[in-house]
Amino acid sequence: MKANTKKFELPFHVIKRSEIPLWKSLLFRVIAVVAAILLCSVLSIFMIEANPFKFIGTLFVGAFGTPARIWAFSKDAALLLCIALAITPAFKMRFWNIGAEGQTLIGALAAVAVIIYCKALPEWLLLVLMFVAAILAGAIWGGLPALFKALWGTNETLFTLMMNYVASGLVAYFLLLWTPSGSSVLGRLNRGHLPVLGHENLLLIVLVLLLTVGIYVYQKYTKQGYEIAVVGESENTAKYIGINVKSVIIRTMLISGAICGFAGFLIVGALDHSVAVTSVGGMGFTAIMVSWLAKFNPLIMMGTSAFITFLDRGAAQVTTTFNIDSSFPDMVIGIMLFFVIGCEFFIGYQLKRRSHDETKDVPKPAITAKVESKGENEQ
Fold first, then answer.
1. What 8-state DSSP symbol labels residue 61?
2. How high is the pLDDT of residue 10?
3. 352, exposed or middle or buried, with CB in 10 Å at 0-12, 13-18, 19+?
4. What are residue 349's DSSP bridge partners?
C-alpha cells in the first residue's frame, strides 16, 4: 500500500486581515481592557482580600480622584507622549532607537549647564539658550548612532542602549562637579523656569499637543515623512527610486534626538527645575510601548500614553490604599498590558474555518488510521 504523506491539518487556519475598520479595532482594545480589569478585580479578592469594586475604583481614583491628580496625570502623560513622539520616526524607519532615555537625559543636562554657567543672562535669553542647548545635545546623542549605522553598519540597538549609560555617567560626573559638598543632589534651581499659563503644567501640555500635530503632519504629508516610510518598508526599494538611505537615517535620528532633547528641556524648565540620574525615570523605554501600540500614529499615541499613565498612577494608589508592596500592582500592570498586546493579534489576524474542499482529502491522524487498518486485517 502506498503511504499517504499528507500532513494532518486543523479545520481552521490563521490569516492576516487585509483591513479592519477603526471602530472594530477600538472595540477589540476596549474589550481587552475591560477583561483585564475584571480579571485583576477577581484576583484582588484572593490575593489582597479586597472588595473588587473598591479595587477598580482605586485605580481610577489614583489617576482622576482630585483636580491635582488630574493635572499630575496630564503632565505625566504629556511628557511620556513627547518622548514617544521622538522615537516614532526612527521606529517607523525600522531604526531601533533604544536610547531615548539617554537622549532626554543629556538634553536636560545641557539645559541645566546653561543655567549654571550663564547666570548673568536675562531670563528670556536664558530660556532660549536652554532650549537650543537641549535640542543640540539630544540631536548629537541621537545622531552618533545613526552616523555609525549609515557609514559602518553598526548595530543601532546596542549602540543606542549603551549611550544611555554614557549619558547617566556624564550626569553623575557633573553633579559631583556642581555640588562641592559631594551630595550629588543639585536641588531646585531658581532660574530657567518656563512661564506659568493658568496652571504650572498647562504650557507643557499645550506644547506637547502642538508637537503631536506637527509630527503627524510631518510623517503623513511631507516628502521626508514619505522617505521615512519607504526606507522602513524596504531599503532596496528606497535606493531604487533614488532615495539616499544614509542621509535619511542620519536626518531622522537627528530629529528623533532633538525631540528627546526638547523633552529634557521641559523636565528642567517646567517640571523638576533640576537634573538627576533618575530624571527621566524609565520613560525612554516605556515610550517604546506607547509608540508601538499606536502603530506609530502620533494621534493614537495620545490615547496609549494616557492608558499607560493611568495604569502607573492607579497601581501606585492601590499600593497606598491597601497598604501592600508594589508586587501586586506590578502584576496588575503586567496583566493589563498582556491583554492589550494580545488583542493586537486579533486586530491583525483572524481565524478562518477551512472550506469542505480543503479538508475532505486531509488524512486522518496516524493513531486512527492505524486502528482502522488493524480492523481490516482481522476481517
1. H
2. 67
3. exposed
4. 16
Identify which of 340, 345, 320, 333 has the alpha carbon closest to the alpha carbon of residue 43: 333
Q: Which of 218, 100, 135 is closest to 228 using CA atoms?
A: 218
The Cα 121–Cα 267 span in angstroms is 21
- Enter the pTM of the model: 0.87
Report pLDDT for 355: 67
Which residue type occupies 288?
Answer: I
pLDDT at position 325, please? 84
Residue with cell 493586537: 344
The count of residues in the chain is 379
Q: What pLDDT does 367 receive?
A: 47
Q: Is 311 exposed, middle or buried (0-12, 13-18, 19+ CB in 10 A)?
A: buried
**Cβ atoms 103, 255 nearer than 8 A:** no
SS3 percent helix, strand, coil of the chain, rounded to 5, is 70, 5, 25
pLDDT below 50 — which residues of the chain?
1, 359, 361-364, 366-371, 379
Cell of 376: 481490516
CA gap 287, 100 in Å, rounded: 8
> Residues 317-324: contacts with CB within 8 Å, 24+ apart?
317/58, 317/59, 317/61, 317/62, 317/63, 317/65, 318/55, 318/58, 318/59, 318/62, 321/58, 321/61, 322/48, 322/50, 322/55, 322/58, 324/48
